[in-house]
Amino acid sequence: MDDSVAPVIPPVLDNKLSKNDVVSINPDNDDTTSKTPNLLNYHDWEKIIRANFPDLLMAAEVAAAHFGQLLIKDIKNPGATVLIDVPSAGKTITLNFFSGFERSLTLDNFTPASFVSQAANVKTEKLKDVDLLPKIKDRVLIIRDLAPLFGSRDDDLLRSMGILTRVLDGEGLELHAGVHGQRGYSGDYSFMLLAASTPIPPKVFKLMGNLGSRLFFFNLRSKNKNEDELSAQLVETSWKEKQGHCKKATQDFLNTLWLNYLDGVEWDKRSDPDDCVKIITRCAKFLSKLRGSINVWKEDYGIDQYSYQEPVIEMPDRISQVLYNLARGHALICGRTNINYDDLGLILNVTFDSAPLSRSRLFRILIENQGEISTDSLMEKINCSRPIALKEMETLKILGLVNLNDSETSMVGRPEKKMTLKSEFSWFVEEECRFIQETTQEYYFGGYR
């Protein structure tokens, strides 16, 4: 890569502290209930998060970038990102860092019907007092658990996702019901959404694909702790105390950010490097296909036949805008008013994670193998049967991401395919993409993932 555009990645801290130590920049003034904020810049905030919850640093920056977007004047598209992982991975801890800030509203869970209420037991003139939508305008809505919504019955899920999809256009919501008639809000009702959930069921991605997905995802991919690490957690500083310090630091950091940009930011888009912007658009084009919806799937693996309806693939325009806004929000919290390569690792991870888990995993394996893999190799890497491997490979072919050809070793009753990444997505196996991924892993996770 040309030295003139190489990312500036801060060195990983070597502070000789145990990862179980609590770190505070100002320990003498660490009252989490104080209304007077300490001035805390990005680098000091990053040190506190890294020392207390190193595995959550990247997730915390994804969340903070949504607050950064609120300060950029031309951003009118709501950004909505869901942190996903298995239970007890740190999703709620991360969101708790940001709860209580005056520009946020935190809920444990919710129903999209609460945006504009049509409750029959509430008088019409009182409904405005319970409507959620006006309360979150120009704020960040934090929902600690979206899993109940994603796990609801199909009819309820369709209704809820339809409302959520419309609200995330940022143009308000108008409803009509038998009890209260037509009511709602129109105009600029932009907001940001942060949420947490366990891994998303495939039916949710299929439904979102048909409606036009507005949700993006970030997978924490928390590592499994060994016995020593689990033992240390039990006898050393409690996570509750660490969370309190990180929450106080986050509140101070966000207050400092608002003091620095009190009147908002007029973003000069022309100052953003063309190569960085093009990488974001590549990610958008790729993601639009990766999370496309295949509505009908019939297979007969005995004779190796597949049939399907034409997949529903969204245009990449909205995705590119949302990813660009996320990169700008991240740049702003880092103290910059233009994006650079430091922001792109986050964008790549959100891109790969905002698709069904099986597709995301398969594509990561594909790029690790330089864009080419056989059925036998895939079966070994994802520990699955031949029919499942063939189905997953065929999925990427239908979506227009790969070419799929018979292998020379293919036999009757034992079909063998070779999957190759299409040339239009070859950037994802090139040195530039690999460099961004490797430096991002090293900075946030020390390279262990």
Describe the structure.
- With 449 residues, this protein is α/β, with parallel strands linked by helices.
- It has a domain at 3-270.
- 43% of the residues lie in helices and 12% in strands.
- The protein has a five-stranded parallel β-sheet. It has a three-stranded antiparallel β-sheet with strand order 10-12-11.
- Helix 2 (57-70) packs across helix 12 and helix 15 (375-382) crosses helix 16 (386-398).
- It is globular.
- Residues 1-34 have low confidence and may be disordered.
Rounded to an integer in angstroms, the radius of gyration calculated over CA atoms is: 23 Å
Shape: globular
Q: Encode the helix/strand succession as letters.
A: HHEHEHHEHHEEEHEHHHEEHHHEHHEEH
Q: Approximately how much helix is present in the residues?
A: 40-55%
Mean pLDDT: 86
Question: How far apart lie the N and C ends?
Answer: 23 Å
**Count of distinct strands:** 12
Strand content: 5-15%
Number of helices: 17
Walk across the major sheet and give the strand order.
2-3-6-1-7
- Chain oligomer state: single chain
- Main beta sheet: strand number and arrangement? 5 strands, parallel
Any low-confidence stretches, pLDDT <50, length ≥5?
1-34
User: Structural class, please?
Assistant: alpha/beta
Describe how the helices and strands are arranged.
Blueprint: H1 42-52, H2 57-70, E1 80-84, H3 91-98, E2 104-107, H4 127-130, H5 133-136, E3 140-143, H6 147-150, H7 154-167, E4 172-177, E5 181-186, E6 192-197, H8 202-211, E7 216-219, H9 227-235, H10 239-260, H11 274-290, E8 297-300, E9 305-308, H12 317-333, H13 344-353, H14 357-368, E10 372-374, H15 375-382, H16 386-398, E11 402-406, E12 417-421, H17 431-445
Parallel strand pairs: 1-6, 1-7, 2-3, 3-6
Antiparallel strand pairs: 4-5, 8-9, 10-12, 11-12
Helix pairs in contact: 1-10, 2-3, 2-12, 3-10, 7-8, 11-12, 11-13, 12-13, 13-17, 15-16
